[in-house]
UniProtKB/TrEMBL annotation:
InterPro entries: ARM-type_fold, CCAAT-binding_factor, Noc3_N, Nucleolar_cplx-assoc_3. One of its GO terms (cellular component) is nucleolus. Residues 79-93, 175-187 have a biased composition (Acidic residues). Residues 27-93, 160-187 are annotated as: Disordered. Residues 40-51 have a biased composition (Basic residues). The gene is NOC3L. Residues 454-488 form a coiled coil. PANTHER family: NUCLEOLAR COMPLEX PROTEIN 3, NUCLEOLAR COMPLEX PROTEIN 3 HOMOLOG. It is found in: Nucleus, Nucleolus. Residues 555-708 form the CCAAT-binding factor domain. This is Nucleolar complex protein 3 homolog. It comes from Pongo abelii (Sumatran orangutan).
Length: 800
């Protein structure tokens, strides 16, 4: 068996910091108790010594015949008087004191020499008589109580087994009055002076002073690290230790400042590559000083970065668990503020250092916080993930995040925030191409063989051609064709995980609040879905629409997804999407006409895919019905929506030229127009006219007026009725965004009323009637006479 050596480890800096006040108080009490016990032992020894001297000084010895006979009362009184007259210990010589100690320990009845006793009247020196008197005094045997022994484990030696025992400590229950008084004195000394209480103003001033000192210390450490990171990498540890600030006045603020400072430092000093651990062979080989210094810097940076991330994780866990620590430095209310700063730093590092070590660990921390109950933290994490998706060109970091999100959504049984899945819309997967197509487009260039060069080129030309081919090879390596293949592979894997997540929700959680985000994502990435899934997916979308459980916006996303599928690789499929046309035609009048007119943008995109891009599969009756319903809808929505709808109508009139019969009120066909019918093929739209355009011509928005006049004229591309290039060249969706009133501004701005031209202003008589002029002159020429005012007469008449 191997026994573990009990080596006393030196406490680390972290353990010293974590030592609580309770432990320090216990240590102080133990130290004081030890001091008291040693003092008591010393006093007991002194008391025993005094008692022995008093016994030796007694003058009249007890006769040997009756050693146990009681002394008379008078003799006891005399002995007490003599004891009082005896000299204290501090006034005796050292020799006498030593002699008395020996006598007190060794004198007994058994060891006394009786033959050496001489008569009392013998003339001797004074000190010899005293010694003889000592010897003649009878001694009583001290009955020493037997000490209890504690048997310990024996020790095995070469000679054999050696038993081990230890005396059991005996505690004296009786305490003398002197000990009690001394204990009281010691307790009075231990009591500390009460701390002087500060006023609120003094406390705030003191806190401000402490905070300023801490800020200066943080700034000094950070500037030293930035100036020379390789030499001052050890100062990162000193700065990180301030995350455990124990002063309750400034602990929360200092910790927040240190978190942000370390985050900015790591963003600045971190290299643009991932640091891997050294192998044993690399560690054993000798290197130059510069290389060794760089290795130490990288090793220190990785370790401090790891500890920093662990500290941030612990702060978030403390806030989640809401457990107060023993140190009681940070209150429960302050946990949320610290956690928000920690999460913000993690989000910054997620976006800024996707290439560096522990990036996957940060992803694992951030993804669950995207579904947090706190709205601020959830939005912060979702925005960070969106930013990462948008700037990730290769796709490695995006793939890691998508894997964790997919597993998290599945583990929570699809009960997560819809914002988590909406982040998928920011993925940069537009560049995904089929591998064969890329090979066809970028065919490798063939270089001439030596025989071909010799036949067709001269010696100088061959030399130039060789140099040119070498340069082309180097340029091809610089283009990194391998990275393109890697990028394609990563994007394919990412898209597969996204579609698996979407299809799981469509299959298992059709009434989940995640459905709008899923349909929106499918509408964006539908052109990249494999053809094998098209039939099943269209059936699922149609079932969702027919169920009636979807809102108008969700149903529009279903329609948009279906037509994105059919407009891409779905052209080869023989599918009739008439039911989707009918549903869109029915949904147009359900759009929100107020400020939340987001559905109009989806409708404009659907119309572009369904009618414009599929013009060959659309009948004239269907086009006429959609144009009529769109013009009716334009009367009820906001100006930007009206502009977008009229722009779409203009495009449809250009795409289907025969629809101009709607501008002629005299043309008639078979049947009567049925506006309430939801079937665009059978509503007889050819028997109506676009009378709505004449109402829109008097619209308060100038751009709506311009579009209405343009459409009434037949949407000409030239002439007086044509639109300006800034309106005609922009798509319907762009016009919808450009003239949006979301920011509470009117576009174009309302012109200020022009002031009237100032002419000759006529004054005086020209504005008045002649009779009025004479009356004014007459009253103004009369002299005002002062007469006493008597109101009582009018009052009396009114009373009567």
């Amino acid at each position: 068996m191997k026994f573990r050596r009990n080596k006393k480890q030196i406490p680390s800096f972290r353990k010293l910091i974590k030592t609580s006040k309770v432990k320090l108080e216990n240590k102080l009490k133990n130290k004081q108790f030890k001091q008291q016990s040693t003092l008591k032992k010393y006093r007991k020894e002194q008391r025993k010594l005094r008692q022995a001297v008093k016994d030796a000084v007694s003058k009249k010895p007890i006769p040997l015949e009756n050693p146990k006979e009681k002394r008379p009362g008078k003799r006891i009184e005399r002995e007490e008087e003599e004891e009082e007259e005896a000299l204290p210990l501090d006034m005796m010589d050292e020799d006498d004191l030593q002699l008395m100690k020996d006598l007190g320990q060794r004198a007994s009845f058994l060891t006394r020499d009786l033959s050496s006793s001489e008569p009392v009247h013998a003339k001797k020196r004074k000190h010899k008589r005293i010694i003889d008197k000592y010897e003649k005094i009878p001694r009583t045997l001290q009955t020493v109580p037997e000490k209890e022994l504690i048997h310990l484990l024996p020790i095995k030696d070469k000679s054999g087994i050696i038993p081990q025992t230890r005396e059991k400590p005996v505690t004296d229950s009786n305490k003398d009055e002197e000990d009690q008084e001394e204990e009281r004195e010691l307790e009075e000394e231990i009591i500390e002076d009460p701390i002087q209480e500060l006023t609120i103003e003094e406390h705030l001033i003191e806190r401000k002073k402490k905070l300023q000192e801490k800020k200066m210390h943080i700034a000094a450490l950070a500037s030293a690290i930035l100036s020379d990171p390789e030499s001052n990498i050890k100062k990162l540890k000193e700065l990180r230790s301030m995350l455990m600030e124990q002063d309750p006045d400034v602990a929360v603020t200092v910790r927040k400042l240190v978190i942000v400072s370390l985050m900015e430092l790591f963003k600045d000093i971190t290299p643009s590559y991932k640091i891997r651990p050294l192998t044993e062979a690399e560690k054993s080989t000798k290197t130059r000083k510069e290389t060794q210094k760089l290795r130490e810097f990288e090793e220190g940076l990785v370790s401090q970065y790891k500890f920093y991330l662990e500290n941030l994780e612990q702060m978030v866990k403390d806030w989640k668990q809401r457990k107060l620590k023993k140190s009681n430095v940070v209150s429960l209310k302050a946990y949320k503020g610290l956690a928000e700063v920690a999460v913000k730093s993690l989000c910054e590092l997620l976006v800024a250092l996707p290439h560096f070590n522990f990036h996957n660990n940060i992803i694992v921390l951030i993804v669950p916080l995207m579904n947090d109950m706190s709205k601020s933290i959830s939005e912060m994490c979702c925005e960070a993930v969106k930013k990462l998706f948008k700037q990730d060109k290769l796709g490695q970091a995006s793939l890691g995040v998508i894997k964790v999100i997919s597993g998290f959504v599945k583990g929570r049984n699809y009960e997560v925030r819809p914002e988590m899945l909406k982040t998928f819309l920011c993925l940069r997967i537009k560049e995904v191409e089929v591998k064969k197509d890329t090979e066809d487009i970028n065919k490798p260039k063939k270089f001439m063989t030596f025989k071909e060069k010799r036949k067709s080129l001269s010696r100088m030309q061959r030399k130039w051609k060789k140099a040119e081919e070498k340069l082309e090879r180097e340029l091809r390596e610089a283009e990194a064709s391998e990275s393109t293949e890697k990028k394609l592979k990563l994007h394919t894997e990412t898209l597969n995980i996204v579609f698996v997540t979407y299809f799981r929700i469509l299959k298992k959680a059709q009434r989940s609040p995640l459905l709008p985000a899923v349909l929106e994502g499918l509408a964006k990435f539908a052109h990249l879905i494999n053809v094998e899934f098209f039939d099943d997916l269209l059936v699922v979308l149609h079932t969702l629409i027919e169920s009636g459980d979807l809102s108008y916006k969700e149903s529009l996303h279903c329609v948009q997804t279906a037509f994105h599928i059919l407009s891409g690789q779905g052209d080869v499929l023989n599918i009739d999407p008439m039911k989707f046309y009918t549903h869109l035609y029915k949904t147009l009048f359900k759009l929100h006409a107020g400020a939340t007119n987001e559905g109009v943008e989806i409708v404009l995109q659907c119309l572009d895919v369904m009618l414009t891009k599929r013009r060959k599969q659309v009948s004239q009756q269907r086009a006429l019905a959609f144009i009529k319903r769109l013009c009716t809808l334009a009367l009820h929505v906001l100006p930007n929506s009206s502009i977008g709808i009229l722009a779409t109508t203009r495009i449809l009139m250009h795409t289907f030229p025969k629809t101009d019969l709607l501008l002629d009120s005299e043309s008639q066909g078979s049947g009567v127009f049925l506006p309430e019918l939801d079937e665009p093929e059978y509503c007889n739209a050819q028997n109506t006219a676009l009378w709505e355009l004449h109402a829109l011509r008097r619209h308060y928005h100038p751009i709506v007026q311009r579009f209405a006049v343009h459409l009434i004229a037949g949407a000409p591309s030239e002439g007086s009725g044509a639109l300006k290039p800034e309106l005609s060249r922009r798509s319907a969706a762009e016009l919808f965004e450009a003239y949006s009133t979301a920011e509470m501004t009117f576009n174009p701005p309302v012109e200020s009323s022009n002031p009237k031209i100032k002419g000759k202003v006529l004054q005086g008589d020209s504005f008045l009637n002649e009779d009025l002029n004479h009356l004014i002159k007459r009253y103004s020429s009369e002299v005002a006479t002062e007469s006493p005012l008597d109101f009582t007469k009018y009052l009396k008449t009114s009373l009567h």
